[in-house]
Amino acid sequence: MVKKFIITLVLVGLVGYAVFEFVQDQKREETGIEVGNIAPDFELQLLNNENKTIRLSDLKGKKVVVNFWASWCKPCREEMPEIQKFYETKSDDIEVLAVNMTASEVKAENAHTFVEGKGYTFPLLVDPKNQASSDYQVLGLPETFFINSDGTINDFIKGQMDLEMLESKVNKLK
């Protein structure tokens, strides 16, 4: 009697585990902004080079940080130097993309004016119709997504981050 109960319990556990893994696999194949989803793809123009674009899906195989910002956003302005410090030490291992929510700027030139002379070396992108920020459901700024090398979302931060937070999240990327 006890043997049958243990065997039944093990079988129920195995079935439960199989269902859990199936659901996780389905989630991994789904595009969205939840942890485990494939990050929504975008192709955006560089802020300082109208002739060059970056497509997120072209970075598959690399760990990527995608930061959404605007020049009018004080926390965005405060975290940019932290992102630069991080990028200076980790740019061989991690790609950082800073996406300006250009449609939210009073004038598109404000993004250019803000970064001018600051020496930011990570890619600054413009999102003139806020399509990428819409796909990522960005409602407040700044917002940052951490994307694994397989293209899935590992984590995100809503609000301002500092160097320690950035490094901590990046260290969890796969």
Note down, in words, how this protein is organized.
- The chain is of the alpha/beta class and 174 residues long.
- The chain has one domain (31-170): Glutaredoxin, CATH 3.40.30.
- Helix content is 37%, strand content 22%.
- The protein contains 5 helices and 7 strands; from the N terminus they run H-E-E-E-H-E-H-E-H-E-E-H.
- It has helices at residues 2-28, 74-90, 109-115, 131-135, 163-170, and strands at residues 43-46, 49-55, 63-69, 94-100, 124-126, 143-147, 153-158.
- Strands 2-1-5-4-3-6-7 form a 7-stranded mixed beta sheet, covered by helices on one side.
- A hairpin with a 5-residue loop joins strand 6 and strand 7.
- The longest helix is centred in the first third of the chain and has 27 residues, at 2-28.
- The chain is elongated and about 75 Å long.
- The relative contact order is 0.18.
- The model has no long low-confidence stretch (mean pLDDT 90).
The CATH homologous superfamily is termed: Glutaredoxin
Distance between the termini: 46 Å
* Structural class computed from helices and strand pairing: alpha/beta
Strand content: 15-25%
Order of helices and strands: HEEEHEHEHEEH
Number of strands: 7
Quick description:
By secondary structure, the chain is an alpha/beta fold.
Task: Give me the secondary-structure topology.
Elements: H1 2-28, E1 43-46, E2 49-55, E3 63-69, H2 74-90, E4 94-100, H3 109-115, E5 124-126, H4 131-135, E6 143-147, E7 153-158, H5 163-170
Parallel strand pairs: 3-4, 4-5
Antiparallel strand pairs: 1-2, 1-5, 3-6, 6-7
